[in-house]
Structures are given as C-alpha cells and as structure tokens.
Amino acid sequence: MASSSSSSKTGLKKMLTLKSSDGDEFELEESIVIQCQTIKHMVEDGFSLIPLQNVDTKTLTKIIEYMKKHAEKTESNKEEIKNFNKEFVKGSFDDQFELVSAANYLHINGLMDLLCQSIADRINNKSVRAVREIFNISNDYTPDEEEKVRDEHKWAHEGGEFDESLD
Amino acid sequence: MENGKWLGLLFELRNAKLEIEKCDEDVKWQELGNNGGRPLPEDLVMEILPRLPVESLLRFKCVSKKWYEIIKNSSFIKEQLYWSSKNTTPRILIYDHAGCPDDDDSPPNPNPITRILVSNAACVHKNSDYFQGFRDPMTDDYKVVWFRTFWDVITHDIIPRLFAAVYSCSRDSWRILQPENGEILVDRY
To answer: Which of B59, B140, B172 to mutate to test the interface with A (most CBs of A within 10 A)?
Structure first.
C-alpha cells in the first residue's frame, strides 16, 4: 500500500492476477508478487495471469498476506515484520504444512525459511510419538527394533519430559 | 480457458525445471508414511529436519525407519551442520582445567554419541587437552567439550586416539563421548 518511496521506472503500477486452484482470482501489484521466484520468472516471460493449480484459496490468501507485508519491509519497521512473522506461524501444523508446500511450490525463499524454522522449533521438544502423529507417520519399527534405536543414543531420550501435545 | 490451461502447463514445466535444479542427487527417498492422512512430502521434511539440534534428531531416529535413514545420512549431517552453525553463536566458557573430573582413565558410564555433537562445538584444535565451551541450542545449556589424549604406560607411547567428554552446566556432570566408529572426529567449518 504505502510502498511509494522507491522510484519505479514507469509511473504506472503493473498488475498481475493470481488464480487459486478453486478458481478465485487475486489482483496484485507486480512489485509484491516478485518475491515469489516462480512467478517472477513468468512475469519476465510476459505473463500477467498466473494459474496456481496446487494452491487453494485459503492458502493463497495467507501467502498473499505474507507477500504484501514483506513488500513493505524497510529499515524502520523490522520490529513490525518480526511480530507479523510471529503471528503468521501460529496456525495448526496442518495449516503450516499446507503453507510450506505452497511456499516450496512457489519458491518464496523467505517464507520457506520462516515456516521450516518455526515447524522445527515447534517439534524440537516433542516426544517421538507426538512427532509421528503430527507428521502422519506410521511406526514401522517392531518394539525390539525401536528399543535398539533408543539404546543407540539413550541420553538423547533422557533429560526431562518431552512434549506429548499435538499443537 | 484454453489459454489458462496452457499457462498452467507452462507453469508446471517451469516449476519442474526449478525442482530439478534444486534437487540434490543424494535426495532420492520416497514419500514418507503410508497411512490414511497426507504425510508431508519427503523433500519438505528434508527442509525442516536439518534445522533441529542434534539431540532432538538423535531422538527422532525412533520416529520411523525412513527418518532413521534420513538422519544418519552424511549429506543430511552436513546440512544440519550448516544450520547449526548459522543458528547458534558459540560462546567460550572456560579455558583452564578447573573443574575437570579427577579420574581421567576409564570412562565409568559410556554414552554412545555420534560425531555431530562434537562438530557442533565450533572450531576445535586437534591438540590434546583442549577445552571448548559452547551453548547447546536444544537445552540452552552451557557445555564444555574436553578433548584428551592418553599415555599408554605399557607401550610408552601416546594412545593414537582422541578422547572427549562433555560437561553440562545445568546438570553439573560430565559425559564421556563414545562415537559409533570408535574415533572422535573434529570437524572445522
């Protein structure tokens, strides 16, 4: 919105349309969308309507929220962006996984970084069982095998309680 | 509509090309998990896990056989080292020998550990009797790793192996490191 301080080559703001997998269209300034590497390449190739078949409306709305905020980034609002990021990663694991898939698909490096680090921080102190649930992984060890793997690094399983919660 | 479809295809192609450029030849695992829900694709798991500290990763080897494979893979370890060096600022705690265990000779309670924790201790000299302090990002604990060599009284020679122990400030205790391959490796990076 208020990113008029940087001088653009042309006076007119170039607009782009992103289309979600649900068919919803979002019109955005090119300068905002350029954070997304994949779209940037398409813009360079002259496209102005970008269909995103792997990103649904809900996820795309969040992604656009992120890109808009980060397009406003200056030296003076670092704190504001930091707080925004903090709020942004607060959703459920399922939502975060949706977002990380989209960020990866769209090649938005900053967002990838933010999400991956936040997911890593959130599972860091989780129990093995909780991690399986969160990532939807079935345990393919027999009890004996699992015991053996635990014994390889017994100390890593000690040292306090691990978080069993799934959020 | 026709045009939209074509654009979509082109977009997919572009993405596929970027994927290939990004793809490490070592990363060739299949998708994780096979139960009802949608597990996160392997390439995304590979983006998240290296950002975890070593202790959590060693614990998460128990999650599944696939995760075990991922975590012990050498290119994964390199990736993890990259992130841990980026995320943590090693701080030096002690440089003298005060507070070391009196009994150096035999490890009373060996604890298996892989070499990655040792490498985590930032740059270390390969000399004997060397201390390095660092902050463990997992527990936010100060730790000191102590490297030692020993003299063999029978052969009258230095035992050609490096020994190491880690001191934890919060537990006020020492742990002897016993790497799987029987050798302490010190990485500089």
So the answer is: B59
Residue B21: strand, helix, or coil:
helix
Helices (H) and strands (E) in chain A, counts: 9, 3
A105 close contact with B: CB closer than 8 A: yes
Do B40 and A135 lie within an 8 Å CB cutoff?
yes
- One pLDDT digit (tens) per residue for chain B, 189 residues: 455 555 566 556 555 555 554 443 333 333 333 334 567 888 999 999 999 988 788 899 999 999 999 988 877 877 887 787 676 543 322 222 222 333 444 333 333 232 333 333 333 334 445 666 665 655 666 677 777 777 778 888 777 766 777 777 777 778 776 655 555 555 432
Tell me the sheet residues that pair with A29.
A15
Backbone conformation region of residue B150, classed left if phi is above 0, alpha if psi is from -120 to 50, else beta:
beta
Nearest Cβ partner of A146 from B62, B113, B139?
B62
**CB–CB contacts below 8 A, A to B:** 129
Whether B183 contacts chain A with CB within 8 A: no
Is B174 strand, coil or helix? Answer: strand
Q: Which candidate from A140, A151, A153 shows the least CB-CB separation from B64?
A: A140
Q: What is the pTM of this model?
A: 0.62
Q: How far apart are CA A123 and CA A43, in angstroms?
A: 37
- The DSSP call for residue B73 is -
B134 closest CA partner among B150, B120, B113: B120
Answer positive or negative: Cα dihedral of A3, A8, A11, A14: negative
Tell me the C-alpha distance between A53 and B9, whole Å. Answer: 10
In a 13 Å sphere around the CA of A125, the CA atoms on its Cβ side amount to: 11
Query: Coil, helix or strand for B159?
Result: coil
Handedness of CA B70, A165, A94, A37 (dihedral sign): negative
